[in-house]
Each structure stands twice: as C-alpha cells, then as structure tokens.
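Long-time lurker. I teach an intro course on protein structure, and each term I like to show students one example going from raw sequence to a predicted 3D structure in token notation. This year I'd like something fresh instead of my usual example. Would anyone be willing to generate the tokens for the chain below so I can use it in lecture? Attribution to the forum is fine with me.
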Amino acid sequence: MDDKLKYYNVLYITMITKEERREKYHTDDDYRDKTLKRFKDKYYSDEEYKDRKIKQAIKYAKDNVSYTKEYKQQYYKDNREKMINNTKFHNDNNRSEVLYWYSDGLLKCNECGKDCIEFLCIDHIGDNGADHRREMGVGGDRIYKYVLKNKFPEGYQVLCNNCNFLKEYIKIQSKPKSKTTYAVAIRKQRLNMRRQALYWYSNGSMQCECCGEDDIRVLTIDHINGGGKQHVIKDNIKNLHEYLHYNHYPEGYRILCFNCNKSHGQYGYCPHQIL
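-- Reply from a regular --
Happy to contribute to a lecture. Here you go:
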C-alpha cells in the first residue's frame, strides 16, 4: 500500500465517528475483514504494538474478572451450539493442515498407505508422545495447535489409528515382563477374556464389523449407541473385557478396529459406510 492510499484510509477513519465505525464493522463484512486484516498485520509486524495490546488485555482481564467470567458463561449458554461448531471447524482445519504438511500433501498413512483423512493422526517419531504431552500440556486437538504455532517442527509423521496403536503395542510387548506365577496367570486370564469378548460380539468372526480388519491386536469394543467414556467413568470400569465377562456379555456392543471406532466417535460415521 503506497503512502497516498494510507493517507486516505486514515483520513476516512478519522472522518466518521466511533459509533459509525462500530456500526459499519458489524454490518459490512468487507469492511470488517479489511479492519481485522489491518490490525492482524500490525500485531505481527510491530512488536511495540503487540506488547501494548497484550498488556491492555491483561489489565482489562484483571480489572473486570467478575464481569468477563459472567459474560463468558452467559454467552456460552446463549451460543453453545454455535461455539461448539466453530471450535470443531477450527480444530478440523488445524488438523487437516498439519496432516497435509507431514504427509507431503499425500494425506495418507506413512506405514500402510490408508488415505482416508478420518483415520489419520499425528505421531511422534521418537516415541516420546506421552512425555511431550505431559511436559507441554498438549493433547487431543491441542497438539495440532502446538505444531502450527511452532511452525511445523521435525519429529512427527502421519499414521492411521491402527498403525499408531500397533507401534505402541509392539513397543510395550518388547519390554521385559514379570515372570512370576501370579503375573503370568493374570496376563493369560486378561488375554482370554479379551478374546472371548471379541469372539462373542463378532459372532465368531473375530474381525471389524465395519471394514473386516482381522488383526486382533487392533480390534476394540465399541458402544453402539455411544457414551463409552461416560459409561467407563460412571461405573468405574478398569478393564472393559472383564466387565463384559462378569456381566455375561450384555447387548449394546460391537467389534470395530481403531480406525472405524475413532471415526465413528469423532465424526459420527465411518468412510467405509459411504465409499
């Protein structure tokens, strides 16, 4: 933007009142977009301006703690669905951008090649994901915000949920285990209960009901009507397979692989249903 155009923009802004600018901001989408872009560009290019705005925001928050808290609570109650949808939209955009970057634009699993974005996730190549989440306080969708904020650091790759779990499973199985009689018996008992649950709810097929995946290591128990997390918390369930065994395999469950299970939980559908 040349100096002459800047001059006329400043002149126009000073000619209208604050109330008129506010009204124009809320009614004119083009004017609002240009205003936000101007302030955003200045915020990221002018360190002095950025520091001043941050201090102003902190001061305002301290001086209006009760007001801002009440306002935010009331605003959330009045616009709950809108805010949830907006958050989901931004999280999906962040996730897509990160997956696109670390898969070199291919949007597919680095191990098996599955290319359904609903199945994909970000993986720590160095197997330090848990330590990183504890150290940085990031997890879930926040990991994608962290990666974007830090300009796509190295050490990540794209895997599908099945391959991501298998990587962790192989790592755990390679660790030394207790060989005492009790420990061996408990591991055998839990494995048998898991196999029995998978056999029961798959009608003997031992495969994913949605895609047909038959690798028993990535098969999971899925709550057909949802609410699995709340069920586990409410009934204080430590091991779902034991719970199903001692409750004589109640209805309402099915067998899905990690890919299909997480897709159903996050999106409400699985790509296999529409392909």
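Some talking points for your students: The mean pLDDT is 89. The longest helix spans residues 80-102.
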